[in-house]
Amino acid sequence: MYSEIPFCVMQITRNVKYAATASSDSSVLLWDVDTGEEITAFKGHQDSVNILAFNPDSTLLATASHDKTVIVWKAAFNPLCTCTCTCACTTLNCGRSHASAQTQVTDGKIVYQLEHSSAPTCLLWSPNGDQIATAHGTVFTLWSSKASGKTLFEVEDAHAALISCLTYHPQGIFISPLYSSLKFFMI
């Protein structure tokens, strides 16, 4: 992987085949980990991108920027059959061995955008991918990832200090500023 702009952040898919990188020039790039080749560029942010997160099945990529937005991109990795059988091979369900199956990556279209009143400091997908949790300043917001980013709830002054960490627990979300106390929200 090579880029003339230094990366600020990188996220790798669970299957370790693809990496997304972001930098201070607002670019978000998707790379093939095995070859080091750039696959596609995601264009939409107007300022530096500081957080990246793939949803659990790596079909969506969320990016947070200093432009006060989180953009959710289509980052589906679709099977593409290159065998010569006469069936509907593109669905990989013809029953033949598909040793030649490859992966085709879609080109990063914007699915929806989440607006914030200041730059997001945290971004986290729920373990099942149904929700996105974000923080900006002292505000904590939980969004539906299934309903085009509908706000499920928002807590103003969720913490006394700038929220810098979010993590999921089976019954809720922990939030914390750097070097300070921890709060738990049941969801």
What does it look like?
It is a single chain. The protein has strands at 7-12, 18-23, 28-32, 38-42, 49-54, 60-65, 69-74, 77-80, 102-105, 110-115, 122-125, 131-136, 139-144, 151-155, 163-169, 172-177, 183-186. It is an all-beta fold and 187 residues long. The strands form 5 sheets. Strands 1-2-3-4 form a 4-stranded antiparallel β-sheet, with no helix packed on it. The radius of gyration is 18 Å and the shape is globular. Mean pLDDT is 79; it is low at 78-103.
- Elements, N to C (H/E): EEEEEEEEEEEEEEEEE
Structural class: mainly beta
Pick out the low-confidence regions.
78-103
Q: Judging from the principal axes of the Cα atoms, what is the shape?
A: globular
Mean pLDDT level: 79
- What is Rg? 18 Å
Distance between the termini: 39 Å
Helix content: under 10%
Number of helices: 0
The strands making up the biggest β-sheet line up spatially as 1-2-3-4
- Number of individual domains: 2
- CATH class division of the largest domain: Mainly Beta
Q: How many β-strand runs?
A: 17
Q: What's the CATH topology label of the largest domain?
A: Methylamine Dehydrogenase, Chain H
β-strand amount: over 45%
The CATH homologous superfamily of the largest domain = YVTN repeat-like/Quinoprotein amine dehydrogenase
At CATH's second level, what is the architecture of the largest domain? 7 Propeller
| Main beta-sheet annotation | 4 strands, antiparallel
